[in-house]
Amino acid sequence: MNDAVKLNSIFTKLSKKKKPKLLGRGIGCGKGKTSGRGHKGQKARSGVSINGFEGGQQSIYTRLPKRGFKPIRKNLYSIFNVGDVQCLMEAKKIVKDSIIDKELLHKLGFIRSVKSKIKLLNKGKLR
Q1: SS3 per residue for the chain
Q2: Would you say the C-alpha torsion 88, 102, 123, 97 has a positive or negative sign?
Q3: What pLDDT band is residue 7 in, cutting at 50, 70 and 90?
Q4: Measuring CA to CA, which residue among 73, 90, 75, 77 is closest to residue 120?
Q5: In 10 A of CB 29, how many CB atoms?
Q6: Which Gene Ontology terms describe the biological processes this protein takes part in (predicted)?
């Protein structure tokens, strides 16, 4: 006997076959006229959702306390460690007595822009 599964032998539930109800196709269809949106008002129109509106009660973003501060002119620093200099010397990308400036750091990929400020941290050791 061949017990191969065929497309016509697979049983699907009736609920999976059920098609969604069409809206606005006359009174007789059950979802006609107002199409389940009720009568008039803002929610009856298209583009229904009112973000943050909670039916007249005080919304959650006004109930919760506002925290912190975002500065307009935030100073963004590129961080560079002393240990990175040692790694560069070990990889022979820089010579021991060479000058390390913004152009060199930008070329090596440590900072994104030559205009950015650099913060030198004391992580790692020079040998």
Answers
A1: CCCCCCHHHCCCCHHHHCCCCCCCCCHHHCCCCCCCCCCCCHHHCCCCCCCCCCCCCCCHHHHCCCCCCCCCCCCCEEEEEHHHHHHHHHCCCCCCCCCCCHHHHHHHCCCCCCCCEEEEECCCCCC
A2: positive
A3: confident
A4: 77
A5: 13
A6: translation
C-alpha span between 96 and 120 (Å, rounded): 18
Q: How far apart are CA 54 and CA 76, in angstroms?
A: 39
Cα distance between residue 14 and residue 5, in whole Å: 20
Going by C-alpha positions, the residue among 127, 122, 125 that lies closest to residue 81 is 122
- For 64-82, the pLDDT digits (tens) are 998 888 888 777 888 888 8
